[in-house]
Write a structure and sequence with these properties.
Arc Repressor Mutant, subunit A, 354 residues, binds adenosine-5'-triphosphate, five-stranded parallel β-sheet, three-stranded antiparallel β-sheet, Rossmann fold, binds magnesium ion, alpha/beta, 3 domains, Helicase, Ruva Protein, domain 3
């Protein structure tokens, strides 16, 4: 239990299970996903979708937000979410879907066959004249054959049984890799998903999201803008940044201060993503590195202009990024006289980004 004087206002907003109230910079993706499901409202088959993008780009959150909106606005559409990585078999996934649909607590008997599970799902839907949106998150964790067993009946419900003939469906597959499963051709032909790409967040987008999260968790002006920029540009991804933000809050709390750059730096020391990740480049570092590499060398002034124009970063933040890349041995710098003393940056020989 945190005391009255805790820095945190709502620590739960840093939890992995927290569904953000403001889901920033993902309007297009949400609209595309919604468009796949909308036909179900009019009693016609929906589109299938394949959501893909690097980890922590908001794929699962987008599905959860869209499902929340649909459940609030339509009583005809049932949304079922299963994380396949946690149930990587056809039986496990369908049993979980069954549970979610019926609201029961006990798993079906282990002896219940897969076909029987599909049949129970269709019976439930048909009885209430409901349509189904089935989301299979992290679907690549399941062997293709098993996955095929799960999706095939929902791709052509009218062919499965007399009960399911009128049931309309839409399947949402989610993955952080672009590896496509090798389904048999009939499945490929019926699946034909709309691809929705979740691009990595830019440093500015990360900063916006973290600012809103920091205000929800701590209240306004508790975390300095410098600290937010450091998180936005140096964390491995948004999930890492949110964890670091919480830890920085705990460090600042123990010192009795607000959250500043020092606290974030300490958090980085205590929560490196992994040994390799500590050498992995953030989005801003990579963009600056690419620019220097393509030009051969750049003066500090040129880098500041590039960084402000292309990444929206202030000079202080860019200076921190350059210093960090020199510390990591990625960049070399040399002081030269060019209308006064200035630094020239080049990419260190032998550097390969990981
Ligand atoms: N646009 C956003 N606005 C606010 N928070 C976000 C946004 N995008 C992601 N998040 C937060 O980032 C974290 C990771 O998001 P999410 O789990 O949706 O990513 P993912 O793409 O499903 O990742 P993975 O591929 O690893 O499963 C969550 O805490 C989520 O709340
Ligand atoms: Mg996810």
């Amino acid at each position: 239990m945190r005391g009255m004087l805790s820095l945190f206002r709502r620590i739960e907003v840093f939890d992995d299970t927290y569904l953000p109230e403001n889901f920033l910079h993902r309007d297009r993706e949400m609209e595309e996903l919604m468009a796949c499901i909308k036909p179900l409202e009019h009693g016609i088959q929906g589109y299938n979708a394949l959501l893909h993008g690097r980890p922590a780009t908001g794929k699962t959150t987008a599905v959860q937000k869209v499902f929340q909106q649909i459940e609030e606005s339509s009583s005809r559409i049932r949304c079922v979410y299963v994380n396949v990585a946690l149930k990587p078999s056809a039986w496990g996934t369908l049993a979980e879907a069954c549970l979610r649909l019926t609201g029961q607590n006990a798993l079906p008997d282990k002896g219940t066959g897969v076909i029987h599970l599909v049949d129970s799902i269709f019976r439930k839907l048909s009885k209430k004249r409901n349509s189904l949106v089935l989301c299979l998150d992290e679907f690549t964790s399941m062997p293709t054959k098993e996955l095929q067993t799960v999706v095939a009946p929902f791709l052509r419900p009218w062919e499965f049984s007399a009960v399911s003939r009128e049931v309309k469906t839409s399947i949402i597959l989610v993955s952080s890799s672009l590896q496509s499963p090798r389904f048999r051709s009939a499945v490929v032909s019926s699946l034909c998903p709309r691809w929705i790409e979740f691009k990595p967040y830019s440093a500015e987008q990360m900063h916006d999201i973290l600012k809103v999260r920091a205000e929800a968790g701590f209240g306004p002006r508790v975390v300095s803008d410098e600290a937010l920029w450091l998180l936005a540009t140096a964390a491995k991804d948004l999930r890492h940044a949110i964890r670091l933000l919480r830890l920085a809050g705990e460090i600042a709390e123990s010192r009795g201060t607000k959250v500043g750059v020092d606290d974030v730096e300490k958090a980085f020391e205590r929560l490196p993503d992994s040994h390799v990740a500590s050498m992995r480049l953030s989005e801003a570092e990579r963009r600056i590195l690419d620019e220097i590499q393509s030009r051969g060398s750049m003066r500090s002034g040129e880098i500041y202009s590039f960084s402000e124009r292309e990444l929206g970063l202030k000079r202080t933040r860019t200076r921190q990024i350059l210093a960090s890349m020199i510390r990591k041995g990625i960049l070399n710098s040399e002081t030269v006289n060019h209308r006064g003393l200035t630094k020239v940056f080049t990419v260190a020989r032998g550097w390969k980004s990981c």
